[in-house]
Amino acid sequence: MFLRINVAFIGLLSSLIVAMAAPGHSHEVTPTIADFVTKDGTLDMKLRLNAEAFVAGIDLDTHQNTEETGQAGDYDMLRALPPEELRPMLRVFAEDWIASISIEAGVPVQLELQNLRIGPVGDLNVPRESYIDVTAVLPPGATVLTLTWPTGSGAVVLRQNGVEAPYTGYLQGGDSSGPIAISGGSALSPQEAFFAYIPVGFDHILPKGLDHILFVLGLFFLSTRLRPLIWQISAFTVAHTITLACGALGIVKVNPEIVEPLIAASIVFVAVENIFSRRLHSWRTFIIFGFGLLHGLGFASVLAEFGLPQSQFIPALVGFNVGVELGQLTVIALAFVAVGYWFGKHPKYRGRVAIPASVTIALIGGYWFVERVWM
Fold first, then answer.
1. What does the alpha-carbon distance between residue 277 and residue 324 come to, in Å, rounded to a whole number?
2. Cα(71)–Cα(50) distance, integer angstroms
């Protein structure tokens, strides 16, 4: 019985090489950034977005990576087009799509397309930035507005500018901002900011954080016993909390092109050590602490994409970190329920589960390292 389940388990892990060996970050969906300002009865909004994903018709609510979609080929083709060739396609898309962005200010407000800007073709493994500028005339006497983000458009970071205590929100497709005071004062309270950013942090572990998931699984497979696992997770948590805070506050800045390959290397190290070590050595805890510092910088680069509300920076940062921890604990819990609880005490667990799983994790991490350095 154990052997049959073990074979199925190893087969599942091996299949992940194909699924996960796709670029770890280059095809990941990034949120749209929507900066808006209201002045003299006019709403001006600048949308920074991954234009190719929208033009290709990808449902960004259900896909976290463009490689997982049936439009992956179209997306890659669009990524390679120079701005002058992509612009008419983006204009056709934008003219229809902006009508689906619902804005209410006592009455429905109609957005109008003003300008398109598309970045030059660069590294095809890095999403280029494109911009759609829209404007709308607000009804006389309007004091609040509400924006509903279109279903299928993925996440958006909605940021109000030019007022005191501006609104900042993180919306998924179909979500509504709630009333936003046009003159300012709609900044999230500390409690609202804390709870609003918990799902943002969780989302960047499950399902988006494949590299962080593999690292945590690498910690799990050394031993399913609680004490070694607690030591490792505690060291990792303290470390990435430090660099996440420093990175988000701008105290430490490291190029992601350096951090991301090192994160992949950390996955390989932990997995390979699992193969040759039967227990947690004291020095491994210090090494995991160092790797945690790297992973914290990775989380900080995620926050740098869209920022945190300045008026409630600390509560939002803490909420994001809590979400990350909940995501990590969920990974551990799922691994324990699927493997540790049933087979953790079996005499052949290490040889038939832990070592093959660690080999698989090391192969994936190794591929990512090569891809992030040379591809």
1. 28
2. 14
Smallest CA-to-CA distance from 181 within 147, 143, 148, 146 is with 143
Percent of the chain at pLDDT above 70? 89
Q: What is the 3-state secondary structure (H, E, C) of the chain?
A: CHHHHHHHHHHHHHHHHHHHCCCCCCCECCCEEEEEEEECCEEEEEEEECHHHHHCCCCCCCCCEHHHCCCHHHHHHHHCCCHHHHHHHHHHHHHHHHHHCEEECCCEECCEEEEEEECCCCCCCCCCCEEEEEEEECCCCCCEEEEECCCCCCCEEEEECCCECCCEEEECCCCECCCEECCECCCCCHHHHHHHHHHHHHHCCCCCCHHHHHHHHHHHHHCCCHHHHHHHHHHHHHHHHHHHHHHHCCCCCCCHHHHHHHHHHHHHHHHHHHHHCCCCCHHHHHHHHHHHHHHHHHHHHHHHHHCCCHHHHHHHHHHHHHHHHHHHHHHHHHHHHHHHHHHCCCCCHHHHHHHHHHHHHHHHHHHHHHHHHHC
pLDDT > 70? residue 24: no
Looking at every residue in the chain, the average pLDDT score rounds to 85
Identify which of 13-22, 24-33, 94-103, 190-199 has the greatest average pLDDT: 94-103
- Number of Cβ within 10 Å of residue 52's Cβ equals 25
pLDDT at 306: 67
pLDDT bin (cut points 50, 70, 90) of residue 87 is very high
For the chain, report the end-to-end CA distance as a whole number of angstroms: 42
Dump pLDDT digits (tens) for 105-140. 999 999 999 999 998 987 666 778 899 999 999 999
**Residue reference for tokens 């994903």:** 53
CA 41 to chain centre: 36
